[in-house]
Amino acid sequence: MPEFTVSRPEGTVAEVPPPPRWAVRAAHASALSATAGFIPLHAVWALGIPLWADEQAFREWYGVGGGPYLFMLSGMALLAGVLAVSLVRPWGLVFPGWTPFLAGRRVPRRTLTATAYVVSVFLLLYTVWAAVQLFRTFDDEGIFSPWTVVHGIPQFLVWGIGLYIAAHSYRHRTSPRH
Hints:
The protein is mainly alpha-helical. The protein has helices at residues 21-46, 55-86, 109-136, 147-174; strands at residues 4-7, 13-16. The mean pLDDT is 91.
């Protein structure tokens, strides 16, 4: 992959090296986990289908806002997938032409990096919390089967770790001292 050219605030132009293959793989694994790993099951639930859920408890929960909540979570997962990929693509450095008002401008390096780090840390903390909860109370008394968490733990680990690795590479590659 060729180097990217980015304008610096001082007016100078800097070459940004391409991401290493391991960072690209981590970003794509994170994006895939965020989209293909998270969205399908949550979309099924958002549509009101109680797959792997206690039907009665699900219907009550869904009736008080569960559907919109799940659609929102799925949208956030999609944005997290875009965030992961942006860390290894040219449009993570310069906004693409199709973005209104921002086309051709530099992407704020610190904002993108901080967002990626915060999201990855949140995902990893959530994964630890979910694992602890799973082992504390593994029972079928909740709305969803506890086995959905067994699927979710590795999926969230891939998502969070991949995003963290991609963010680390992006921060290093785009550093003004580089």
